[in-house]
Design a protein that fits this description.
Blueprint (H helix, E strand, L loop, with lengths): L3 E6 L7 H13 L3 E6 L2 H11 L5 E3 L5 E3 L3 H25 L4 E5 L6 E6 L2 E3 L6 E3 L4 E7 L2 H8 L3 E5 L2 E2 L5 E2 L3 H12 L3 E6 L17 E2 L11 H16 L3 E6 L5 H6 L4 E3 L10
Helix pairs in contact: 1-3, 2-3, 5-6
């Protein structure tokens, strides 16, 4: 049985947040230690359009993508996540009977990051240097505030942004945040929910689910963007010793339980003797 679970509720518009919250509340009522991590790409894009802030995605050499976060976009991210998505999730969890508390990486210096002021973009096949970025790379996780909440019976709901060592606010990827929290907490399971059945061999064929990705195996070249980031983050958690790491369908009636029961794509860990833990 998985006693300690970190669940990343994807920002994909199709993810059923109400079903995710109901599942999380049930797991917490059973005595599990449950931490929810959320992004909110759909809400960020909606608010950015409303405020007239341009949205730009950066392509990385590894095939993933990230949001370019200048000062205006950082403000949008903070408003969308802490002021929009998080209150709705906390309220829905309360409706389901869970005592949820909303946090960002800033609270209690939960997530410390290093700012990546200069980044490279391979969009369009050309490598360009992009400056003025307020995105960051996670450097340290201090689980004190999360552990205190769990020990008091609360369900933490965590999201970006993070803070640098000198107190600067930076955006970080929510999938990587979830993986880093799962590692720091010594969680038994990390469930990353998205708007697809899992990792697909063919993104246009829902029946092409890959039930397992073993260490060293690479999915098809068509797997890129946000899914590539999930795979990278999930593999890091598996290599750190998280027992079950799965990318699963967030559109189901019981998405978390389905993932823990064998649904989605499991990111297999390396042999025990080669793990850091």
């Amino acid at each position: 049985m998985y006693k300690s679970i970190v669940v990343k509720c994807g920002g994909h518009a199709e993810v059923d947040a109400a079903a995710v919250c109901a599942d999380l509340a049930r797991l917490a009522a059973e005595g599990r230690s449950v931490v929810a991590v959320h992004g909110g790409s759909a809400e960020i894009d909606r608010l950015a359009a409303r405020l007239g802030v341009p949205v730009r995605r950066l392509a990385s050499p590894a095939g993933g993508s990230s949001r370019y976060t200048d000062a205006a976009m950082l403000e949008v991210v903070r408003l969308a996540l802490a002021g929009g998505v998080k209150p709705r999730l906390v309220a829905e969890l309360a409706r389901c009977g869970a005592a949820a508390v909303g946090l960002t990486g800033l609270d209690g210096s939960l997530v410390t990051a290093e700012r990546k002021a200069v980044v490279h973009d391979l969009a369009g096949g050309r490598k360009t240097v992009v400056r003025g970025n307020h995105g960051g790379r996670i450097a340290k996780v201090d689980i004190g505030v999360v552990r205190a909440l769990l020990d008091s019976g609360y369900l933490p709901v965590v999201s970006p942004p993070a803070v640098t060592a000198d107190g600067e606010v930076v955006n970080v990827d929510a999938d990587r945040m979830a993986a880093a929290l799962a590692d720091a907490l010594g969680a038994d399971a990390l469930v990353m929910l998205t708007g697809a059945p899992g990792v697909l061999r063919d993104p246009d064929d829902p029946g092409s689910l890959m039930p397992r990705l073993d260490p060293g195996s690479d999915p098809q070249p068509e797997v890129s963007g946000g899914m590539a980031v999930k795979i990278h983050a999930g593999r890091a958690a598996a290599e750190a010793g998280v027992r079950r790491v799965v990318i699963a369908d967030g559109r189901l009636a019981s998405p978390v339980r389905s993932a823990l029961a064998g649904g989605g794509t499991e990111l297999a860990a390396p042999p025990p003797e080669s793990r850091p833990r």
